[in-house]
Write a structure and sequence with these properties.
Blueprint: E1 7-13, E2 19-23, E3 26-30, H1 32-38, H2 40-47, E4 56-57, E5 60-65, H3 69-79, H4 100-112, H5 116-130, H6 134-138, H7 153-164, H8 170-178, E6 188-189, E7 195-196, H9 200-225, H10 236-250, H11 272-291, H12 293-297, H13 304-307
Parallel strand pairs: 1-3, 2-5
Antiparallel strand pairs: 2-3, 4-5, 6-7
Helix pairs in contact: 1-2, 3-4, 4-5, 4-7, 7-8, 8-9, 9-11
Bound molecules: zinc ion (ZN).
């Protein structure tokens, strides 16, 4: 390799390191034994790398990798931490905002280099964010503090779920993708300037699911509002007028894909019995939609009902 063009990585150039990993033109000097012990893929790769005139730098063996330097930096940050330790069990992390690029890169490379314990830890925030319980979904503050700042991050989440065979992430991540509308074609551009897209099969799945989501939305709305007043109703004409008015007003929003929203909409007051019944129907319908989400989106998730609290 052309070692004269090698730039030392700012963070992972450890002066007593025993091997140089090269991504593009960036060199990472790290500990060969530490890598080999944690990753069978690295162990195999490093076994065959011995210092030679063609593949060495300052007398150290050099291994060329096809990963982006940014991804490798994130991965090494988790594997040989200089700054922080990734530990999904640590409760303090639940109050920290975990960087999505760090998580995504760590998942990708932990999978690629077969570092199974790190992969499990890195998947945890993703699984918690996209496979919350119904109660947590209703309370966004309870969701894992992953730095998901735009809905299109779900594109990366779907791809990571497919890569690592983590189906529990798919219902909510695909649901978010469906809500992107035509912006789904733009993909997700991360801060590194890399744009990620869904594969054709998942794109098709989302486009097909949009129609089903809209249909379920209509049915749920009418189940909540197109009903008779309660037997114990104490203001029959007023409550009937309110429900009728909500049905008429709701028809304008018919056809939207967003089905997990609160179905209890602002409305003129009704009697106590009708208010209680309305709130109950709204919660029940939302809960039913939640439970049927995998089916609506066309994915299979084992124990989805068990995930629901
Ligand atoms: Zn009433």
């Amino acid at each position: 390799m052309h070692c004269s063009k090698l730039t030392h990585d700012d963070e992972f150039w450890l002066n007593d390191g025993t091997i140089v990993l090269v991504c593009q033109t960036i060199g990472f000097r790290v500990y060969r034994e530490l890598l080999a012990h944690q990753s069978p893929v690295f162990a195999n790769m490093l076994e065959s790398s011995t210092p030679s005139s063609e593949e060495s730098y300052q007398g150290l063996p050099v291994v060329q990798l096809s990963d982006s330097p940014t991804d490798l930096r994130h991965f090494l940050g988790a594997l040989l931490p200089k700054r922080h330790i990734l530990c999904a069990e640590c409760s303090y992390l639940s109050r920290m905002l975990i960087d999505k690029l760090f998580i995504a890169a760590t998942i990708r490379l932990a999978h690629k280099y077969d570092v199974s314990s790190l992969l499990l830890q890195a998947l945890e925030p993703l699984k918690e964010y996209y496979a919350v319980t119904f109660d947590e979904w209703c309370n966004p503050h309870a969701r894992y503090a992953l730095s998901v700042d735009t809905r299109s991050c779900a594109i990366a989440a779907v791809n990571l779920a497919r890569l690592t065979d983590t189906p529990s992430v798919l219902p909510l991540a695909l649901y978010d993708c469906c809500l992107l509308g035509s912006a789904i074609l733009d993909g997700w551009q991360n801060e590194d300037g890399v744009t990620e897209h869904l594969n054709t099969a998942d794109l098709r799945l989302c486009l097909d699911a949009r129609e089903r989501l809209a249909q379920k939305n209509v049915l749920a709305f009418f189940s909540v509002y197109a009903v008779a007043v309660e037997v114990e109703c104490r203001n029959r004409s007023g409550c009937e007028k309110t429900l009728r008015g909500m049905v008429q007003a709701g028809q304008a929003g018919v056809g939207k894909c967003e089905i997990l929203v609160d179905l209890l909409l602002p409305h003129p007051p009704m009697c106590d019995a009708c208010e209680r019944a309305l709130a109950g129907r709204a919660r029940l319908e939302r809960r039913r939609l939640w439970e049927r989400l995998p089916e609506i989106l066309g994915v299979e998730v084992d124990r989805w009902d068990a995930i629901v609290s």
